[in-house]
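Teaching assistant here, posting this on the class forum so everyone can see the example we discussed in section. The complex has two components, and the goal was to see what a joint structure prediction looks like when all of them are supplied at once.
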Amino acid sequence: AQRVTQPEKLLSVFKGAPVELKCNYSYSGSPELFWYVQYSRQRLQLLLRHISRESIKGFTADLNKGETSFHLKKPFAQEEDSAMYYCARTGTSYDKVIFGPGTSLSVIP
Amino acid sequence: ETGVTQSPTHLIKTRGQQVTLRCSSQSGHNTVSWYQQALGQGPQFIFQYYREEENGRGNFPPRFSGLQFPNYSSELNVNALELDDSALYLCASSPGWGGTGELFFGEGSRLTVL
């Protein structure tokens, strides 16, 4: 089965501290991997995707195929980073996207 | 460019009733995916429509059905509502083949079943 796991439901860090949101995926084919974010009172939106290898809002994500992980990292957390973060992967078709349960990040001022 | 819109935003039904949720895809997108998001959980894939045909289905019973129209808008129908169907239903569109896999979400329709 194609699955995405995020072990932390809640994560609290102080402003300026590093943050890492963990994500593991089940190995099946060559999935594309994403991080989606939902800020308070906003719709779910793409934060970044592995294939682009880009940094968005200071966040990066490293794919480790050996560990089937795609952890999201930022060296210095900001208050505006407080949001719900979902790791996701493609399924059997490129547009079928499977989401993890999400991690709620709270950045403490 | 118009984003994904969903209607209604909120609705309340009773067990056994039927519900229809609607979604207008983003301009230029021919693929629509529907997700169910229960409280405290991630979005669960229901099904996807590509050019008016169902193109994949998640682990949902047949009483969850859908349609896609020639203008690529879509409906999600749920028959014989159960209490566990209470959730936020999200519609997402994408450009289909040649796309990047990015989904563009609507704000959702919150269904409460009493």
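For the discussion questions: DSSP finds no helices and eleven strands in chain B. Chain B touches chain A at residues 31, 33, 35, 40-45, 48, 50, 55-56, 90, 92, 94, 96-97, 99-103, 105-108 (CB under 8 Å). Think about how each of these relates to the inputs above.
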